[in-house]
Design brief:
single chain; 261 residues; two-stranded antiparallel ribbon; 11 helices
Length: 261
Amino acid sequence: MIADWQLIGFAHGVMNTDNLSITGSTLDFGPFGFMERFNPAWINNHSDHTGRYAYQNQPAIGHWNLNAWLPHFMRLEGVTREALADCLAPYEATFMQHYQQGLCRRLGLPHAKESLTLAFEWLTLLEDNLLDYTNSFRALLGLVAPNEHHYEEQLLSTMTNELSDDAKQVWQDWSTRYMAQIQQQPLEQVIDDMQHNNPVYVLRNSMAQRAITAAEQGQFEEVSRIFDLLANPYQVQAIATLLDTMPPTPHAPQMPISCSS
């Protein structure tokens, strides 16, 4: 579950021990949010002054929560502390395997060392240039299959226009090596993986605020539109507006929210 959060850019915001379910389901939607400009240290809960629940800390907090929860099983006959420790031993390796596999799928590449090198270089490019996390991943379809994905071509153009001259050189080098790897894969499978693992739409705070403002005035059409939009986030939709995929300006702080938001 937490690996999937990281892949999609979701931050829970308040992952206390009581907010972690053994079912592997996300619960207690309070100060949650979706990453816009990529910043692994992003804190989306305005009361999280130390960054305990920052996006990049979620995997470690998941492990901490489970470690705090497991001793309750000591009440059961025959259960030892050593056995409980063994239960958590595979946590990091399991998380990393799922996360790395998902990251490669987002790029349309097989799970391999060369793919992971490209993937982490890509994340560094996003971070160094504060690029939009969702749009940038989706924009790669405009590079891989431009004639079939005009919307993604536009995203790609917007992304590259934000880069400085030095960053554009880094992008050119990376994209050349990336396309060399892509061309070794069946294109149909590449496109399918990228379409099904890179959403076009996520619930941005600005989207939610517009719907809230309208609802407070007794107008619920925007709530319904966003619900329909996010019910099928992996397909470009006619009901979308430019504001649905517009990130905040670079260096603008992303709106933090509270448990009562």
